[in-house]
Amino acid sequence: MTFNINGFKANGLPFGGARPSQFQVMLFPPFNSPTNERLRFMIKAAGLPSSDLDHIDVSYFGRKMKVAGDRNFAPWTVSCINDEDFPIRATLEKWSNDINTLVSNRIDPALWPTGYKTEAEVHQFGKAGEVIRAYRFSGLFPTTVEAIGLDWEAQSTIEYFDCQFVYDYWEPINQSSSIITYSSLLPGDSNASNDLGALSQQFPGSSNRIG
């Protein structure tokens, strides 16, 4: 095969490649807080969700045939910057405490059975600033707010910590100009919230969340 850089430019990366630093996470805790608007500025690392299907081994005469199993939704982890007023750390700790209080070991009855769950979105931006891919996580809540390391020898750095979430499912809410698109529903299924603007009704003030 003859190497031709022009062929690669035309067929491999015609748009110049997506950049992992061009993203924003929109997180909507299930309670009002004066620091909620800052969350989108404080999440410095995240990930687009993985698509995981299990499989089932069926044995026959010593051989194994594989058939498709159930779908799994792997935990989602974000890394957060910490400021001196602990805006996102305090929010996540409160959220976790509301689910299971640190001392009394109970959930707030007002949050049972699903009031502690919420939604989050991750937006991938193009180099021109437009959203080129977006995913929504539904039924999301934090399971682990990681420790923050402290060290006398740590100089010229800012604290950050990870938080792991679990959720019921994710779905694409903006597939932009993708050559291949797909629907998370089959024809005849009930409608899911496939509209980017739907959250503005459920979470007032979220309609201006990009910018």
The rounded Rg comes to 21 Å
Proportion of beta-strand residues: 25-35%
Our measurement of the CA-to-CA distance between the termini, rounded to an integer number of angstroms, reads 46 Å
Number of strands: 9
Q: Please count the helical segments.
A: 4
What structural category characterises the helix and strand content? alpha+beta
Order of helices and strands: HEHEEEEHEEEEH
Summarize the biggest pleated sheet: 7 strands, antiparallel
Average pLDDT taken over every residue: 88
Poorly predicted segments: 196-201, 203-211
The residue fraction in helices comes out at 10-25%
Overall 3D form = globular
How would you describe this structure to a colleague?
With 211 residues, the protein is an alpha+beta fold. Helices cover 13% and strands 33% of the residues. The chain has four helices and nine strands; from the N terminus they run αβαββββαββββα. It has helices at residues 5-11, 39-42, 87-99, 199-202; strands at 23-28, 43-45, 52-60, 63-72, 76-81, 118-125, 131-145, 160-166, 169-174. The strands form two sheets. Strands 1, 2, 5, 6, 7, 8 and 9 form a seven-stranded antiparallel β-sheet that branches. The protein has a two-stranded antiparallel ribbon with strand order 3-4. The chain is globular and about 65 Å long. Residues 196-201 and 203-211 have low confidence and may be disordered.
